[in-house]
Every structure is written in structure tokens, then in C-alpha cells.
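Hey, can you fold this one?
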Amino acid sequence: MTSSPDSATTSATHPAIRTDPATGAKLFATRAAKATERIAGKGYSAVSDEALKTLPPPPPGAKFDAEEQARYREFKESRRGAADYMAMEGEFARYLDDVYSAPPVEREALTDDCEVLVIGAGFGALLLWYKLRAAGFTDVRFCEKGGDVGGTWYWNRYPGIACDVEAYSYLPLLEEMGYFPSMKFASGFEILEYCQTMAERYGFYDRCLFHTTVERTEWDEAESRWTVHTDRGDAMRARFVVLANGILTTPKLARIDGMESFAGQSFHTSRWDYTVDLEGKRVGIIGTGATAVQVVPELAKIVRELYVFQRTPSTIDVRDQRATTPEEIAQWSREPGWALARRERLATISSGRTALQGNDDFLSGKVEAVKPKRRYERELTPEERIQAQLNTNFRIMEQIRARVDAVVKDPKTAAALKPYYPYGCKRPTFHDEFLPSFNLPHVTLVDTAPLGVKKITPAGVVHDGVEYPLDVLVYATGFEWMATGSFNMIVGRDGRTLREKWREGGVRTFLGLHSHGFPNLFIMSGPQGGGGQFNFTRGLEGHTDYVVWMLKTLRARGAATVDITRDAEEAYAAHCRDADILTRPLRDCLSYYNGDGNAEPGSLAYYGGPAKWHERRIAAQASLDPYVFEGTAERVAAAGE
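Sure. Predicted structure:
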């Protein structure tokens, strides 16, 4: 690791906790060593076969009529109730072990004070530190349960991992870092290295306590501070707490009879065990979601037999991966603001599929539009716009289903791989090698629709009376969506946790960033949070800007705390509910986006669109009406001393 400009001089022993002689601040050296050099890989490959990089045209007369709508409903209803997941506790707790780092660095427990404590060390935390530092906030501390930075890119290091948003728009601070991604769609391994370089350059490692899981955070009304308890015995006090631990952080395991009896080796994709040699082995993978779509082609290249157990097929769209060209790097080097301009152009695209394809001509500014906008004789009502989107989505899905027929040779396998739900209802996937994998003689799709795998034995997986013998079993069963465990351990003014408040009265926030009764708490990228659309890091840009703005506002007013009025929260929650209900036909399937069909409207993601979210944010910042500022910063500072 290179030293950062902020690093204090340390002794030869480089203690885990030291004091900066210039400022008196505590600095840390708790970054864990990499567990093994075998943890390495790549993402999408560039494919030369043009037939694999284009979708067939939609069939003539394709229309989302009553017959097709009934087919979609039957596809959905046949799977209702099939999603059954369990907590990773007891004998299943091992699936959460950190397999990527050496054991935690030993350190003493901390019981001191800081101004800002942030939970997480992914892009949200890295961006926030960059901006806080620039704004003059330096008494900032981070807690991260993993052994290094990266967030989702730390935990997800499976073979084939890559980002589905183009790297030129996804990676933050590209110009500041002087970095050009090697591929249009960067691999997770490259993204992790980029996170590490960011952390080194801006002194993040000195501020972060790694292998430190926050277990409980309690508000002290008398002192206007949070007390943060961790699994390392810490009881740190902070004026402000920021949740920056992401939206897909808790892995899920499907509840399957007999899974504990499996005699072979098994692991979850978010804890990929690189000590397990897969070459020449019989391997099974349960799941065909976004992760499995990236994993399967890589497994197919090395294993002896591969069994892919699928309950619900994904949409397998064209990826068309390519390397960054020397000409692009030369052009961008001469073009100040190139990355920001590209990111903002991406944000103007309203179609998720178009945004995720990343049209280079449009994003580079060579053309004014990706394609001509369709014009209607009159302005459509919101309901008519939804119906128009459904019709467009249906034609795209027809093309995606036609692609399956064009690529997969076995008709039975092809039929099982065709999805029947609105495009984007489940997370879209992109790959040019996934479908061809099922033409290989040693790769077998086991169609477990509609209810999924129900039995595992010591020898392997059983379905329809057939036992599939396995040496290794991989669970690609995904993550809980916006269900971070942090919500269970944040205790606010009335003694309730955030989870208890939301369970009793429904999810209620203001902008997704505040919740009434939890002063000086900021929730980044949580339920009802908006502003980002399809590029997650653009949302983080907005959220981090907001947190810095609020801290500067509190400092300027000399206030100790900020909370939200109950009325502002109720109005925003109602807006989130209305936006969800209006657009719900676009998500008429069972997926983690809607809690497998069980989530209350407005309780998860924000569906009002980035423009509406920013409109509400700007109005709040201009008027300050939704906020309740109390106390004086001097009193809090005295209490901290």
C-alpha cells in the first residue's frame, strides 16, 4: 500500500491505533492482508461473434395483448410463495465468514468521541470522506465489517464479476484520480483495486476500523450523541452517524431440506472460496440471477460437469464488451470534465435498458439522442405512459426470448430459459457467453420451476426424483434488498429501533436520508432514497453532497442536532407510495424489488424518478421547513470533552 498524503509518521511496529502528533487525532492501521493470492479473476470477455452481440428483430405484430398478459400472470402466480430464505445462523453462519482477508488486526477497544462515524467502506463512504475532507470535516471515523475497502466489490469476488453500468460513468472521481478503466464494463476485480487506490490516495485507511461490525447504536438525548457499540468491544460516541453500508449487503440462503447434510464443499457466491479447486469437479450452482449469469460461463470453462439449477430465468441481454481504446484515452486526456459530462448524459436516459447498454456516441456527445423520441398526437396521461412502456417492454422481451431460440440448440433447454415478465421487473442481466454455455456437453440446465430446489442429500441435489451427484455446491441465491441489519440496531429517541418503527407504522423517511425520531442520523442509499436512477454511484454523489451540505448548515447555525418534522416525513412517505403504485404494472412479477410480492407500496426503492426526488430535495434545502434544528454545538462539544 502506498502512503497517503494524510498519513502520520508511525513507529517501526506500526501499531493498529496511533495518535497524529500534529492534530492529536487517532489514526488506524487495521487493513487486513489478503487471504490468498489465488483471489483473482476477470469480468466480461470481449466476444467477436456478431451473432452473439445482437438481438433478433421483434416478431411482426408483437403486442402485449390479453393472451400475453394472462401468460405473464400465470408465470408469476405459479411461483408465488416459492421464495423461502433463512437466516445464516448456527451451522449456516460459516457462509458469512470473511474468506478474503487474513484474521483481523488486533487492537484495543475504543471508548472515545468523534464528530462523524460512518458505517461502511464502499463507494459511498469513500466519496463521503473525499467531500468531508475537502469541506474541513476531519474528525471522521469509519467502521467496516470486512478487511478492506470496496463494499459490494469486496464481498463479491466470484469468477466473471463485472459491473453492468459502463465504467466510464460508474466509477467516481475518474478525473481526479487520473484513471481510465481498461474495459467499458469493468470487472469487479478492477473496481476493487480502484477503491483501494482511492483509499490510499485520500488517507481513508487512516480513518477506518476494519473487521469491525457495528452491533448497536443508541441515541443519548442528554448529550445529543450516538453511542456506537461494535463486536470489538468499542463504545464510541459520535455527534453524527451515517449509514453507508449499501442496499445489497446481507446474503440470502434458500431454505432447502437436507442442505446441512451435503458432504461436499459449499459456499455462497458472496464468499467465493478460492481455496476450493474446481478444475475437473462436478459442480452445481443454485440460482440463475444476475450473479449466476456471470459465474456460469467461467465455471463452464474449468469444471468437469456443471449443473445449473434454475427456478426463474433471467433476461439475458446483449453485453457487447470491449476494451478502452488508446484513441479514447487520448481524447479524454484533452477534455476536462469528460467523466462528469458522460455521467450526466447517462442520467438523462429514461429507459433502463438503453442506459445499461451505454451508447458510446450519445454518451460521448457525438449525437444528441440515442434514438428519435416517439411523438404522440397529444400528451399522454401517466397511466397511458405506463401502458406504452409495457408495450415497448414486451417487444424487447420478445427479442430476448428469440435470442434464446437463436443461440441454445436444445429446444427443451431453450424453452426453460425464456422469461415471461416485464423487462426490468427482475434485475436485467447482460452476457454474450451465458446462453452458449448450455450448448456445451458438460453443462446441464435443471429446470426446477416453479418452486425451486426442495431437497439436498449428502451426495448432491435431488429434483423430480433424480439425484445430481456433486463435489461442490455453489449458492447463487442473492441478497436481501434494502434490508441491512443496521436498521435492527439503531435505537432512536423513543427507545425503538428503526426497524421497529417501520414495522409498526410502515417505512417512513424524508428523502430516504432522515427518519423522524432519529436525529443526526443519515441513511445513504436506503429505502425511499432517490436521485440515482440506473447508475448507483450517481445517487451516491447526490446523497454525499446532501450530507456534507447538512453538516455545513448545522455548523453555520451553531445547532447541535437536526431531525425531521413528522408532517414532512408523512408527506414524503405518501409520495413514495403513490409513485410506487403508479408504476407498479412495470414490476408485475415476483422479485427482490418488491419483496417477492410482499412489500408494501413505497417501502423499498423510490419510483418517483430522479427529477422529482431532486425537486423535493432542492425545495427542502431552500426553505428548511422540513427540518428541526435544536441545541447548540458548544454544549455538545463540552459534553464530548
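The radius of gyration is 25 Å. Let me know if you want another pass with a different chain boundary.
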